[in-house]
């Protein structure tokens, strides 16, 4: 049996703020377990506004905390200021955790701590004790360690290869959409135009992830996409085979991060794993 629920904002269908509220309302009503909200717009492509978080915290006693992983530091500060007294704000971003705790957050749910538990816990204790000199000394050490982890060429090369694959996917689905539209399949073309944009977003997430961790994303020459099909069956068979290829490469990436103990990248890739389950 589990003691609490950590629940991420709904993704893929990109709900508005009322949709996010109704999502968590349904969970809070269905379960008496304590619920920790998880706002991670970099993975879900939707940000839970401070007003929505505060509204949920006020309306449901079993919504007790949030793992706040928005890169917007000011949003976190506003949440700490506006939240109900007993509601707990936890950092969800290792790079911001020290500053957020010093600003009033109650702690962090960390990835980096899995690799450096002693140093990370000491940093958090200093931050909670309002000892910024000591906490930032450890933060700087940990940030250097995180950067060194990501300097592994094997993983960077594999992520850059995934950028090419996602870009090829976007161009491929765009070419398919054009073929479908010009051949009178409007519904199919709308689906494929949307799919092409999603694949482009997947590519951009990889680019930003690499650059934000002191790497350098490589934008390659993309393959010329196939743009002629005999019928819809051939088109959708091509879609399926391509998604199988993408899934295989992502799974290989996850295996690589596990072997290299690169937990930060492994955590990042979980979004892609979930996305590919839906794609196939």
Question: What is the topology?
Answer:
Blueprint: E1 5-8, H1 17-30, E2 35-39, H2 41-44, H3 50-59, E3 63-68, H4 73-82, E4 88-91, H5 94-102, E5 107-108, H6 117-128, H7 132-150, H8 153-182, H9 186-212, H10 232-260, H11 263-279
Parallel strand pairs: 1-2, 2-3, 3-4, 4-5
Helix pairs in contact: 1-3, 3-4, 5-6, 6-7, 8-9, 8-10, 10-11
Function: Catalyzes the final step in the metabolic pathway of hydroxyproline.
Catalytic activity: (4S)-4-hydroxy-2-oxoglutarate = glyoxylate + pyruvate; (4R)-4-hydroxy-2-oxoglutarate = glyoxylate + pyruvate
Keywords: Iron, Iron storage, Lyase, Metal-binding, Oxidoreductase, Schiff base
Summarize the structure.
With 280 residues, the chain is of the alpha/beta class. It has helices at residues 17-30, 41-44, 50-59, 73-82, 94-102, 117-128, 132-150, 153-182, 186-212, 232-260, 263-279; strands at 5-8, 35-39, 63-68, 88-91, 107-108. The chain has 2 domains: 5-109, TIM Barrel; 151-279, Ferritin.
């Amino acid at each position: 049996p589990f003691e609490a629920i950590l629940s991420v904002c709904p993704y893929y269908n990109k709900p508005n703020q009322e949709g996010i509220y109704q999502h968590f309302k349904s969970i809070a009503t269905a379960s008496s377990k304590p619920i920790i909200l998880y706002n991670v717009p970099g993975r879900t492509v939707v940000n839970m506004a401070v007003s929505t978080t505060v509204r949920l915290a006020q309306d449901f006693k079993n919504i007790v905390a949030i793992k706040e992983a928005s890169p917007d530091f000011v949003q976190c500060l506003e949440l700490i200021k506006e939240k109900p007294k007993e509601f707990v704000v936890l950092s969800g971003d290792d790079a911001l955790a020290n500053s957020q705790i010093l600003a009033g957050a109650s702690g962090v749910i960390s990835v980096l701590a899995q690799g450096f538990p002693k140093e990370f816990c000491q940093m958090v204790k200093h931050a909670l004790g309002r000892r910024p000199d000591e906490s930032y000394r450890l933060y700087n050490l940990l940030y250097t360690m995180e950067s060194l982890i990501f300097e592994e060429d094997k993983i960077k090369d594999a992520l850059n290869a995934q950028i090419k694959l996602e870009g090829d996917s976007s161009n491929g689905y765009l070419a398919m959409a054009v073929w479908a539209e010009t051949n009178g399949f409007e519904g199919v073309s709308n689906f494929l135009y949307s799919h092409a944009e999603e694949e482009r977003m997947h590519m951009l997430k990889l680019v930003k992830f690499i650059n934000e961790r002191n790497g350098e994303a490589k934008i390659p020459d993309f393959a010329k996409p196939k743009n002629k099909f005999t019928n819809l069956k051939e088109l959708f068979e091509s879609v399926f085979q391509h998604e199988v290829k993408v899934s295989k490469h992502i799974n290989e990436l996850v295996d690589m991060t596990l072997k290299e103990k690169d937990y930060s990248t492994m955590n990042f890739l979980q979004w892609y794993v979930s996305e590919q389950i839906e794609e196939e």
